[in-house]
Amino acid sequence: MDKFPSTIQFTGLNTPIRAEASVRDLVVEGEIPPEIQGAFFRAVPDPAHLPMFEDDIALNADGMIARFLFGDGHVDYDIRYVETARYLAEKKARKALFGKYRNPFTDDPSVEGVDRTVSNTTPIWHAGRLFMTKEDGRAYEVNPHTLETIGSWDYHGALKSQTMTAHARIDPETGEMFFFGYEADGLCSKEISYCIADKDGNLVSEQWFEAPYVSAMHDFVITEKYAIFPLFPTTADLDRIKAGGPHWAHQQDLESWVAVMPRYGKVEDIRWFKGRKGVSCFHLVNAFDDGDKIHMELCLSDTNAFPFMREAGGIHCDQSEIGGGLIRWTLDMSRNDDSIAEIPLGPPGDMPRLRDKDQGRPYESAWYLSMNPEGGPPLPGGPVGVAFNALLRIEPATGRLDMMPLGFGMGLNEPVHIPARDPDHEGWLMCVVDRQVDDNLFESELWIIDAGNVSQGAVAKVLLPIPMKAQVHGWWVPADQLAQARAGK
Ligand code: V55
Ligand code: FE
């Protein structure tokens, strides 16, 4: 291959940029609220080399860690590759050696046994350390000050699971981090690990249980009482993978499941609830206890949102035809049946953002990305292939919905939430907004939005002088926590 493929996975907002860069003193339009002091870390998949296969996908690209650093009226930007074992092996060879997404049988034989995770999904901050995560492997620790990679993270040798989710949940009161890993002991294993790290970052619990099928378990939720693991029927098959095929295929006629256990309990006490057939969900907003009931809010769709996961399962439909919405599932722990009650809360969308303090608790509002019916055709890019063009604020208890619609030719990436000092103020959201200016040419800005008043639009915009490739997830770290960080000391 002598050029990047001309598919959606490598064009539009997915156009490889590959530049490690630093820009100081970005130009700001409007006034950044002075209480915004800290770092907005972003995970950006960007292939360092031409891929081995023409049909490669954005989820398979090397992870870059980007940071917008806010302090004393200045905003600086940095982006660096996460130097995974895979990145370093390919850097040395000056070409791709790892083949298809999550298929080691397509790799160059020279890298057999080398950790093939790409750390491209979520920057996670816990106990003064920054991690870059990808659900097919362990996290990599990154120095939050220099963005240098420190190395693969195994909790000082304590972690047995070979994988760790990109969606950990941190309890706002105890400071514990709850997480899991699927395919915990190898490719296509049904083993799921469930782990707790204490507020100081020590692994204090790791238990394993078996899934009914190997599922692409992207996210999970906690409440004050429970840990809750939803499984949707996008499944892996070792024979298919050995034959060089795709890791995942969606199965429209298979049930979804929800595994529930006391969050400090034993995996032997797991109760399984049965969900609708064929549905798919990558992200949940939150979950909380309500007496004996558990409510959980999911960005649910009728089928898998990723075209290549649908097509591998023989499902052919247009992206715009997929139904779904923000849905509440309720499980009744006092009843002796495995059914799930369901009510709609909002229009289809994804990339939800919750205030950190609301994790696992009843909450008044949250935000997610959706489509503006008047925004014109969506910008091409991102892992699914189309960018969202509206930001929604929802109040699950009242049903109130507010929208920040974007105009024609614009798209946005997942926001982070920054709490305000004033307890009556909902805080701020910050997200990169892209605008198409020419054929395959985009300009981006970082928008700061009043979280309680999204329909008003941005209160300040940071102008970005270099192109931004589509982000996956982000994380906000306040300045005082950064200053106390261990790494780099
Ligand atoms: C997702 C993202 C991934 C992945 C699997 O958003 C699922 C869903 C960025 O990588 O590998
Ligand atoms: Fe995700």
UniProtKB/TrEMBL annotation:
Q: Which Pfam families match?
A: RPE65
Keyword field: Dioxygenase, Iron, Metal-binding, Oxidoreductase
Q: What is its EC number?
A: 1.13.11.-
Q: Which residues bind Fe cation per the record?
A: H167, H218, H283, H473
- Answer whether the UniProt record assigns the keyword Oxidoreductase to this protein: yes
Would you indicate the residue range of the signal peptide? none
The molecular function GO annotations come to: carotenoid dioxygenase activity; metal ion binding
Oxidoreductase among keywords: yes
Q: Which cofactor does the UniProt annotation name?
A: Fe(2+)
> According to the record, how does the cofactor bind?
Binds 1 Fe(2+) ion per subunit.
Q: Which GO terms describe its biological process?
A: carotene catabolic process
Q: Which family does it belong to?
A: Belongs to the carotenoid oxygenase family.
UniProt protein name: Dioxygenase
Q: What is the protein's species of origin?
A: Emcibacter nanhaiensis
What taxonomic classification does the UniProt entry list for its organism? Bacteria, Pseudomonadati, Pseudomonadota, Alphaproteobacteria, Emcibacterales
